[in-house]
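Quick one, T. Sequence first:
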Amino acid sequence: MQFFTRYLKWKLVLFILVASIMLVVPDILFHFVNKTFKVSHDIKTLFFIMPLSAGLIVCRFKSFSYCCIVVLCILQIMQFASLAYFGDLMSPYTIYMLERELGDTIQEAVHVFIDYAYILLIVCVPFAVITYIIKKSKWRSYIGALALLCTVGLFGYKSLSQETERFFPNGIRFTIYNSVKAFWGYIVISRSQIPSARYKPYEIRELPETKSDGPITIVYIIGESINFRHMSLFGYERDTTPQLKQLASRGDFYYTTGLSGAVSTWAACKFLTSVIKEPDNLQQTSARWTNLFRIAKMNGFKTYYLSNQTEHLLTSIGSTSCIDVIKTRDSNPLKAKELNDEYLFYLLDKQQLDFRKNFIVLHQWAAHTPYSEHKEKGRSQLKGFSGSKDRRIDEYDNAMLYVDQVVAKIFTRFKNMIIDKPNAGKLYVIWTSDHNELLGEGGKYGHGSGALHGATADVPIVMLSNDQQYLDMMKAIFKPTHYELARSVARLLGVEIVNPNSVENVFYINGADYNGKCGYLKCTRDNKSKTVQFETVR
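Structure tokens:
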């Protein structure tokens, strides 16, 4: 009897050891696939893994153990997907951004499934072994349930402080530890209260000198995931933007690089269509007095929002009551799918522009992932480029050829309608991107990890105008930000936005949301040395 009892104890110890090993096996297997990933040698993490394994095996409630296994397995799949696709450990912001852009994430996951299917194998097989051990285990104890609750709930207790920095990944820990931390960090972000406004209100001053009876058309184009380092307009070795390069020879054309207001589309739209500088100025985002559509409407403009994005972004763009014409991808999904970004021309053709005072915002879908889908109607993607070690580079560069066609066509369309015609008035066509799309810079890819990298905010700013004074004003700004760009558009619409909180050459880049609760970067611009310094604030 004593021998049998001793045997059972050693069998339990063996089960716990095997389960613990299975929790770190995905790290080891992933290292063989991706040599840049280093397997942890941190002993401290074992004080998390061993009690977790024991709790899963001995828990009095087997169904609770199975639920925990499912959640942990999903978190680990997300963790290794983040490492493989973005080159970053999963953070609380990654999960938060996944919630915001679930549809886009699913679409891209389907597109790249074959390339990353191995992640399911290296994660699910070890978790299947643990599930088998739980099923075979004869030990059931309330102590096991307590151990499981204490291990997983440890971070839940920490979450009461609502200090998000506690939950960011630590590269020396095993991924299972970082995954559980990220999950609880996401809970913190989701339930965190936005701090009350602590900024002075902005002042709006009318600019009578900008208000004339002459016609004026402002076309504000919001690009999607544009990396200027992959544009030949900015010196990229592949000729990805031949048509924009051709336009660049004109004296009324200007292009430069700038900084976006956020690293996600949802947040960036707020800073593109509203004049807001601070990353957590809830009072200003709620009041909407500096929203460009609102300003335009107050000053007699007819306003348009024509988009190849879904209508959910209207919540971020705001002031929809001040937009005369709203058309999104959801207005005609079949036509939008058929035409891709040429859907914008389909929408433009249906508008009756009177060429008196028009404020038109066009919102692109290209070059969002999957890159290979961006092509002309009735054609496979342009096969201009191939041979890169990473297929994503070729697909993105070919998508950029399509973006070049669409954007150049918009510029040319309005140039022919207004600049090339007498007495057609002032024209301002401005194109920028919501955020950058990393393509290997610093070993990082995409933008969807929610990580705060300064490079993710590097965006192109391209404009065409017959107002030389406006072009000269923009040329005088080194690395203009979206705040400065939106403020310049507000001036064109007839108002000066005075921000009493503004510190010269200090700007901010938000994470996955526009209220600061997903962290932000503080940017200090040095006009003399032509540099920008980034400081992460969480």
